[in-house]
Amino acid sequence: MKICLSIGYPIKISKSPLMHNTGYKKLGIDDQFIYLSAEVKPKDLKMAIDGARAFGIRGISVTMPYKEKVMKYLDKIDTEAKIIGAVNTIVNNDGVLTGFNTDSTGAIMALEKKTNLKGKKVALIGAGGAARAIVYGLTRKGAIVKIFNRSLDNAKSLGQEFGCEYGDLESLEQALDMNIIINATPIGMNADKSPIDKKFLNKNHIVLDVVYSPKKTRLIKDALEKGAQVVYGYEMLLYQGVEQFKLYTGFDAPIETMREVLVKNLK
Hints:
Layout: E1 2-8, H1 16-27, E2 33-39, H2 45-55, E3 59-62, E4 76-77, H3 79-84, E5 89-93, E6 96-100, H4 103-112, E7 121-125, H5 129-140, E8 144-149, H6 152-162, E9 165-168, E10 180-183, E11 206-209, H7 218-225, E12 229-231, H8 233-249, H9 255-264
Parallel strand pairs: 1-2, 1-3, 4-6, 7-8, 7-10, 8-9, 10-11, 11-12
Antiparallel strand pairs: 3-5, 5-6
């Protein structure tokens, strides 16, 4: 039996085990693979990665806040993940741990269901691991991105790295003139809060919230009230998970089965 698992802190709300295990069952490989989750405290991250290598854990999905920190404990980093500067997927091949990033693919696939990204103006809120993956994917597709973050220094650092404009959260009124708004922060996960004031949203926007639980975050509710198109966080979770599924098992994921179980089990 090959074990895959999610690690993060906290990780109580992870829907990845449900999504992956349902996929294994659908393909009849649930006697070969099982997916679990483990909460890892910051001080124990290196020990957890070393343990995964020693125990032969097949795949590790890395969630906040470890997507950047985990990289120094790996043996190899995939080219895209190296450029992004964040890893959300680790594959163990006979004790050699390789880091990948499927967040970028997940976000882009979810957005492209709504629009062609070339030339679109995007307000990206956040400058952490998820934001890094998304800005990489967007700029490769020819979108024009401006990064907004609580720490202007972090926004500046990420913006300069990927050739994007940047600003702090006080300048979010600029989002009114943009085509797409993306929340790449945890804001909205455990509280009825949005990273952007509702008055800066309108019916012409496409709004993606990477927070997937609750299904309708405050940002998503506000966007729907304004008549905007929305991309739920579970769509990004689904598509990045589909990429992970292939990396861990070698099989193509049963996408619709995994989507159904995700939607059914989100509040």
